[in-house]
Amino acid sequence: MNKTELINQIAESADISKKAAGDALQAFMGAVTDTMVKGDKLQLIGFGTFSVSKRAARSCRNPQTGKSMKIQAKNVVKFKVGSKLAEAVK
Asked: How many CA atoms lie within 13 A of 33 on its CB side?
């Protein structure tokens, strides 16, 4: 499913216009992004939790050349699935 299909499904399920569904989805994605940028976590009970985790710097080997490389530390977004979503997918 892509963004357009998701907007269509939201509009149909909520009985709202596609524009309103698109605006709502955009607002949701903006809120999630803002929360992640701040380093906070976003918990949607039953669905899951978005959080930011710091990944430490590390070294690795380039498989083509065999040379050792350094990978810089960075923040990554993690998602832990909620119980209701996990049960539905099961």
From this structure: 6
